[in-house]
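Note to self: keep these together.
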Amino acid sequence: MEKMVEQGRLYDFYGELLTGHQRKIYEAAVYEDLSLSEIAETEGISRQGVHDLLRRVTKTLQEYEDRLHMVERFDRITAHANRLLEITDIEEVRLIADEILKDMA
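Structure:
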């Protein structure tokens, strides 16, 4: 389950960098929970082709993160903003931290 959540987060950050075809197949498999056979039939490609494409997309999304570190930065900024909320009583700082967290969501 944790792997699926991680893949979903990578897709949220980098999905727009994929081709339309890659996004369609990936979303059908991950978000619509269609089987490889169902996707293959719908797309007119082999089951093995769907499997290979999903494996390549997963690898590509991880490579984007390895190069750009956007998910890592997002998590770090979110943690810092949450820490600010925990340690301060100054209302203005709390408001700014709240705004940061809203922007990051």
